[in-house]
Amino acid sequence: MKVKTDKKPEKGVVAYFLFKEDKIPAEIKNITGKLSDEEFDRKLGKTYSTATLGKAKYDRLLIVGLGEKKDFEPDFVRRAAGSAVRYCKSIKCPDLSILLPKIPKIAARSAAQFITEGAVLANYKFMELKTKKEEYFDVKNASIITSDKAAEEGVKTGVILAEAQNYTREVNEYPANIMTPRKVAEYAKQLAKKNKNLSVTVFDEKAMKKKGMNAFLGVARGSTEPPRLVIIEYNKSRKKLPLYGLVGKGITFDSGGISIKPSKNMHEMKYDKSGSIVVLGAMKAVSELNLPIRAIAALALTENMPDGNAQKPGDIVKAYGGKTIEVLNTDAEGRLVLADSLAYVSEKNPEAIIDVATLTGAVVVALGKHAAGLFSNDEKLARLFEESGKRTHERVWKMPIWKEYSEMMKSDFADIKNISGTGQAGSITAAVFLKEFVGDSRWVHLDIAGVMDITNSHPYLEKGASGTGVRLIVEALQFISKK
Ligand code: BES
Ligand code: ZN
Ligand code: ZN
User: Fold this and answer.
1) Using an 8 Å Cβ cutoff, are 106 and 151 in contact?
2) What is the DSSP string of 178-214?
3) Is 453 in the pocket of ligand 1 (CB under 6 A)?
4) Of 30, 184, 388, 409, which has fewest CB within 10 angstroms of its CB?
């Protein structure tokens, strides 16, 4: 989809977003005549459409409700744009214009950005593995109608962010037989080929062994697919810019290993690579927005499988940096691959480290599918992500990491164990395990297990991998880089 700003709508569908309190503009009345509340109640997401029958230059008029002003949230703009795109798809119209609405407290630039995001996200559906592509209709052109120059910047940013999120949705949707660790490494290299300010280094098993990344390698042992630690650097040579670290859990399939999972929803564990693919998408956006920072990302990629060579409960491994870990449950593997990766990135002394992981089922119990769990050793950093969560509607909820929780992870035979064994505070004990490997770095951990995929109807995302986290992280980095 091409998105641009324009002065006047020309063709196709023209959409107006209206609050309950808004006066119906004359140009609408001209087409619809008097509009009663029964015909169009203007509740959020409700639509009214009609052919213009020669009364305007374009073919169809669409009105999308924004609800009452007092209930307004910025995400409603994305949702309304999503409704407009879905309407266009339903009537197979390739051209959509949206009049930039006036919204109290939201600048034209932001409104244009949110409309763009909603439209580009709603237009995307994973079709790569369907043989009949004609089942799917794409909206080709979207114009945001305004004379405000600032809107153009909003459109540009919105396109980069939404396309990065769609990229993450696509890469993450591929199942484990296709999207292996080696394949993800290829995607990263491909991205760096296009975006010249990115560079990629891939560590294979041998390189990891040499570095002593035995926690990571322990997880990989049970699989015939070789693991990869993919390092992506942004603005690598511009040493004066502040450095930020990103780390993503990239389990391309989590069977649980010897502590094997029940078969019922095991197929969903193709999404256990979400964290690393979110990081990949975030790096794409950061590089295209040309943010004035440096970044180093580590994607910790492997399968977690049971076989004759697999790691066993009770095994003790020495992680990168020397700490020993007792592996009491092989299904708590994310924290093991992250341990080595976090320790590696923290050595580079970044201003802050952000890790993203589908780490625990417990976070889904706590927060459901409406927020990621946030854990941080730095109040300011936590607040930054809370604010970014509000603006992007990729919401987070902060959990405590008091030292009592760390006590729960002490091992009888090693420095630390990978589960507490109490069945309590599962997401927090996972987080405090990670904390042991970030040294003195400021750090935030996002547990995205609940938000990795869309399973119910959503106003602008189709079912499947959600790409949640890309806009959240980039928003936070954008904010940091403006200061
Ligand atoms: N990948 C899972 C967590 C998960 C569960 C992600 C559901 C998405 C949806 C993780 O590796 C895992 O298995 N965690 C265990 C930890 C337990 C053994 C302490 C869990 O949550 O059950
Ligand atoms: Zn697991
Ligand atoms: Zn996992």
Assistant:
1) no
2) TS-HHHHHHHHHHHHHHSTTEEEEEE-HHHHHHHT-H
3) no
4) 30
